[in-house]
Amino acid sequence: MSARATAWGAYHAIAAAIRGRIENGEFPPGSLLPSESALCGEYGVARNTLRRALDVLAADGLLSSSPGRGRQVVGQTEGAADQTPQYRRIARELRELIESGSIQPGEAIPSEAALAGRYGVSRGTARHALAELEGAGLVHPVHGKGRFVSDRSGTKSPTL
Predict the structure, then answer these.
(1) In the chain, which ranges are continuous DSSP H helix?
(2) What is the pTM of this model?
C-alpha cells in the first residue's frame, strides 16, 4: 500500500476509533478529549492527520472546539442526537430568517466571523453554510463588503 493511501485511510480510521470511544462512553458528553499531542502519540500519526480526523468528528456534530481549552464531546442536548451537520443547521436557520422576511432583500447577512462566534463553530463551517445559501440563490457576495440577501426572484439586489 502506498504512503498516500495509508495517510488517506489513517484519518478515517482514527475518526472511526474516536467515534467508537465516544459512543461506548470512554469520552462522555461534556468531557475534554486528550491533547492533540497525546492523541498523536497514541495513534502514531502526525498532528495534521489527527486534526483531519477531529475535523470529521466536529463536522458530524460530535465535538466542539474551544480556544485554550481543547476539544469537547458534545452532549445529547447540545446536538449529538441530531446528526445534521452544523453548517446545514446554520444554513437552515438563516434560510428561515430570509424566507420569513426577518432579513430583507439587500440586507447584509452576518459575516463568517460573526456566525462562527454565534454558533461556536469554525469560520470554515460558517463559510460552508453561507455557500449553501449562495448555491440556493438566497444570498450573493459583494467583494470586500460581505454577503447580501438576494431579492425573491433570486436576482441580486442592488448594494451600496
Answers:
(1) 3-23, 36-43, 47-59, 86-100, 112-119, 123-135
(2) 0.48
